[in-house]
From TrEMBL:
The gene is wecB. NCBIfam families: wecB. It comes from the Bacteria. It comes from Pelotomaculum isophthalicicum JI. It is an enzyme of class 5 (isomerase). One of its GO terms (molecular function) is UDP-N-acetylglucosamine 2-epimerase activity. This is UDP-N-acetylglucosamine 2-epimerase (non-hydrolyzing). The keyword ATP-binding does not apply. Belongs to the UDP-N-acetylglucosamine 2-epimerase family.
Length: 383
């Protein structure tokens, strides 16, 4: 039996790793899979675990009020050392770019355990954008033995850094697996604000902001643009699940509080959020994951950042990188609201991030690598 431990600690990681955990469980004839969570984010993580019915074998529960990166790093490293020494896994699987991801890879390396990196190879080449995710990605890539790149572009990034091509597998992104399994055409929102909106006659702009580099004046610029656009179109409604960071919340309330047709709501669980994407007309966000998720549902995305580690979406035409300036955000939003051909071109562009089969590919690659199966993985290629 091949013993695999899957490690994650935040809501985005959990969403993207849940389909892989489920797929690994289907191969119990050759794989013994266990799940360890750091709970770097407690409440948001638990929502996803409940939705996908995943019961962790180990829960480090490291989250504390006002925790720093130093706190997360030290507590996760010590906790994972104990888990790995007890279980002695043959492979540790981590995802993406969080502090949990980097620390799990480091702990595995210290104990000379192979590391598989899911969503490998994303790069902005700016170590402070996004912070600290860009460096977490780089460091995890250096430590990893198997690199599960979501796209051919991510593979090229790894090759350019000297990673052996034999250790890189282009799989598509597991977030598409999770999304397609969650969205339903008959979904009914429990939230009173969301349930009252007529999605057939209203154009809903879904907005999220949380990046550290956008705190302060950049966020104010974004919110002023939103207010300006909403006042100009009577059929536009803004749904804004506001991040729990008090530095974000204070600016949101100052700039958007009490505005007509701008609905400030609490962060949503994954299931209603995924279905809200599906009901939206347009997404404006500084999130990384939404650049992959929204195009899978035919929703254009305006990225409220100056850099992106997902250039495939820009090249494919499913997203536009607009920055945080008030004029640029307002102008691009107006264009998508007014120019139907332009909107249609973005909405109908081929999503370069996946087809819902990434988890199956990753498991097949692992089985082939460790001699459980003779059949090699067939790489993902957007149609």
């Amino acid at each position: 039996m091949l013993k695999v431990i899957t490690v994650f600690g935040t809501r985005p990681e959990a969403i993207k790793m849940a389909p892989l955990v489920k797929e690994l469980a289907k191969h119990r004839d050759g794989i013994d899979c266990k799940v360890a969570v750091t709970a770097q984010h407690r409440e948001m993580l638990d929502q996803v675990l409940e939705l996908f019915e995943i019961a962790p074998d180990y829960d480090l529960d490291i989250m504390r009020r006002q925790q720093s990166l130093f706190d997360i790093t030290s507590r996760a490293l010590t906790g994972l050392q104990e888990v790995f020494q007890k279980e002695k896994p043959d492979l540790v699987l981590v995802h993406g770019d969080t502090t949990t991801t980097f620390v799990a890879a480091l702990a595995a390396y210290y104990l000379q355990i192979p590391v598989g990196h899911v969503e490998a190879g994303l790069r902005t080449r700016d170590k402070f954008s996004p912070f600290p995710e860009e460096i977490n990605r780089h460091l995890t890539g250096v430590l990893a033995d198997l690199h599960f790149a979501p796209t051919a572009n991510a593979k090229q990034n790894l090759l350019s850094e000297g990673v052996s091509g034999e250790s890189i597998y282009v799989t598509g992104n597991t977030v598409i697996d999770a999304l397609l399994a969650t969205v339903r055409p008959d979904y009914v929102f429990a939230d009173q604000v969301l349930s009252r909106i007529d999605y057939g006659s209203r154009r809903v702009l879904l907005v999220t902001t949380h990046r550290r580099e956008n705190l302060g004046e950049p966020m104010r610029e974004i919110y002023r643009a939103l207010r300006e656009v909403t006042e100009s179109y009577d059929d536009v409604e803004v749904i804004f699940p506001v991040h729990k960071n008090p530095l974000v919340r204070s600016v949101v309330e100052e700039e958007l509080g009490g505005q007509n047709r701008i609905h400030l709501i609490e962060p949503l669980d994954y299931q209603p959020f995924a279905n809200l994407i599906n009901c939206s007309y347009l997404v404006l966000s500084d999130s990384g994951g939404l650049q992959e998720e929204a195009p899978a549902l035919g929703k254009p995305v305006l990225v409220l950042r100056n850099t992106t580690e997902r250039p495939e979406a820009v090249d494919a035409g499913t997203v536009r990188l607009v920055g945080t300036g008030r004029e640029a955000v307002a102008s691009e939003t107006r264009r998508l609201l007014e120019e139907h051909e332009y909107y249609g071109k973005m909405a109908n562009a081929v999503n370069p991030y996946g087809d819902g089969l990434a988890s199956k590919r990753i498991v097949q690659a692992i089985k082939h690598k460790f001699g459980i199966s003779k059949e090699p993985m067939q790489e993902f290629c957007p149609s």
